[in-house]
Amino acid sequence: MANLDFDNTQKAFALKNDGQLNRSYWLFRLMQKPILVNFFSRLTVQALKIGLPIGPLVKATIFKQFCAGETLQESESVVALLKKVNVGSILDYSIEGKEREEDFDNTRDELLRIVALAKTNRSIPYTCLKLTGIARHDLLVKVNDKKALTAEEQKELDALKARYHEICASCEASDVPIYIDAEDYCLQGAIDSLTEEMMKKYNTKKAIIQTTAQLYRWDRLDYIKQLIIWARKEHIFIGLKLVRGAYWEKENERAHQMGYKSPVHSLKADTDRDYDKALDLCLENIDIVSICAGTHNEASTLHLVAKMKELGIPNTDKRICCSQLFGMSDHITYNLAESGYNVTKYLPYGPVKSVLPYLVRRAQENTSIAGQMSRELRLISEEKKRRHAPQS
Ligand SMILES: Cc1cc2nc3c(=O)[nH]c(=O)nc-3n(C[C@H](O)[C@H](O)[C@H](O)COP(=O)(O)OP(=O)(O)OC[C@H]3O[C@@H](n4cnc5c(N)ncnc54)[C@H](O)[C@@H]3O)c2cc1C
After folding, report:
1. What is the 33 CA–ligand 1 centroid distance (Å)?
2. What is the atom index within ligand 1 of the atom nearest the CA of 181?
3. Which of 18, 45, 212, 377 has the fewest CB atoms within 10 Å, i.e. is most exposed?
4. Which domains does the chain have, with CATH numbers?
């Protein structure tokens, strides 16, 4: 089996032709400039809101880098491409910010279509869901705060639970595990309790329902410990997607505005430490815990690999999966896959207008994190140079 080498750009970009590599290069160069990213993020959202026809421009540029397509059908060609290099796909119907029950029913129906496809296509080994895709954000905040609901809100909550059960039951029947994404702190408590209810019902034989822990939160290591104790008591399996967390700035701002202690670490090193400890904890309980390491961090990925080796867990163990977002950190994804690890890409798709919040987050993340951008750019530049070096 090949040795892990994250610097192997030939493998990392094997699926990109010269034109595609150039497009990525220019996009990542543009995204390095925070002023430009903020200006274009606001401009694009407004332009699409008032109906300016900029959809095709977005679709040909940033959308193509980070999304698989506008529809499930359109995305299947990317699934097939990833399959060629032994990388699985997690189709992520990235609809955000909806408010109407009708939209939530549509998202549920789309999820059921993904599960049906995954049942017959094993290169889609998991699926995923944002609970705010099937319920109103403010309803979840109210449930989170344990506030009394009006009769109308109670009906909404019942409808949410019915949709959630329908999706989970379909995942169980089709043997397709589902990751429940972690979201804002102000509603994550509600997501946690609803998801625990689902885990108790559907995880008696294996981890079908898998929750997400954001390790930038200083209380999450403890939460994971409690979850494992609870799962052992209930004789169920649990699944944990471990991420650092996507809303660090927003969480700090909200805590400051509302006058409560920030729920997230203030030092990156503390998040990194908790992330690796969470990996250890889950690996040490692998008899009942399934893990998805959702990260682009090389050190954490190497930490996972070393700990698996130390515990005698084979590379190919299906309970452990590494996952990166489509369009990012291909050098980790493809080199891990080459070494036999179970690897997937999160593959967002949906109408351009609906995936905009996701695209804005990706652009901002690639701007604000020191190191991340320069690494993507450096790797792409190295690959461009390698391809055009004179043959000796
Ligand atoms: C497959 C996959 C699924 C994901 N699912 C979710 C999800 O469900 N919910 C979600 O919120 N995010 C999710 N993410 C995004 C993830 O949380 C991170 O935002 C992103 O992956 C960057 O973190 P990193 O581990 O890759 O690496 P790094 O680049 O090493 O870390 C960057 C992260 O560190 C943290 N950080 C930055 N500065 C500080 C600081 N000063 N103090 C403390 N912490 C800091 C932030 O979380 C930041 O995103 C997912 C990512 C992947 C790859």
Report:
1. 20
2. 8
3. 18
4. 68-353 (3.20.20.220)
